[in-house]
Design goal:
By secondary structure, the chain is mainly α. It is built from 7 helices and 2 strands; from the N terminus they run E-E-H-H-H-H-H-H-H. Strands 1-2 form a two-stranded antiparallel ribbon. Helix 5 packs across helix 7 (161-190) and helix 6 packs across helix 7 (161-190). The longest helix has 30 residues, at 161-190. The chain is globular.
């Protein structure tokens, strides 16, 4: 059995972390392996550009490396990294201005072979999500793509839990209305 010693600092007694004795490099490598794919997916949803998403993930891990000692609870590593990524994305707009491209001109290549109907539905859903206001889109993406609980989303976005629940409800409601409207337009055009 392990003999875990408690460390007393002033009046505070602290138990050593799970990573005591593990090098900083090893801790960081574990974070990168565990969360790089999730961070990339979220970054891509934020910017819809593969190279910018790669840059955001790289910058996120760079900042995480510098602040690794501040991560006290390893269970919160994913939300900590998502928060860093969101701030990195915001910094991207502070640093320089980007050339704007009309979203309808951007072609996203689908690497999975879908039939034409599935492909159209996927494009419609993706466009409908992009058409949502950022206040609704971001919590929806964090929940559906990131797999976060509403309480975690509230913490990451610095919002009240009820506000997050309301935004998620409204996002889904707006998506439902938009997709039903599109479906009615398609079926009306074919008759």
């Amino acid at each position: 059995m392990f003999n875990i010693k408690k460390i007393t600092i002033g009046k505070k007694t602290v138990e050593p972390t799970v990573y005591e004795g593990v090098s900083r490099q090893k801790r960081f490598e574990t974070l990168v392996k565990a969360y790089s794919n999730d961070l990339y997916r979220f970054a891509y949803w934020l910017c819809s550009n593969h190279s910018i998403a790669d840059d955001l993930v790289q910058e996120t891990f760079l900042r995480a490396w510098k602040a690794l000692d501040k991560l006290e609870d390893e269970k919160k590593a994913k939300s900590w990294l998502i928060t860093i990524l969101r701030r990195e994305n915001a910094r991207r707009f502070e640093r320089k201005s980007f050339d704007l491209v009309d979203i309808e001109e951007v072609v996203v290549e689908d690497k999975i072979s879908l039939n034409p109907e599935q492909s159209l539905q996927k494009q419609q859903l993706h466009q409908a999500i992009l058409d949502l206001d950022v206040d609704y889109r971001e919590p929806l993406i964090l929940q559906t793509i990131g797999g976060f609980k509403t309480s975690e989303i509230a913490q990451m976005l610095n919002l009240n839990l009820n506000t997050v629940n309301t935004r998620l409800f409204r996002a889904r409601d707006q998506l439902r209305h938009k997709l039903c409207k599109d479906l009615n337009q398609i079926s009306g055009a074919s008759t």
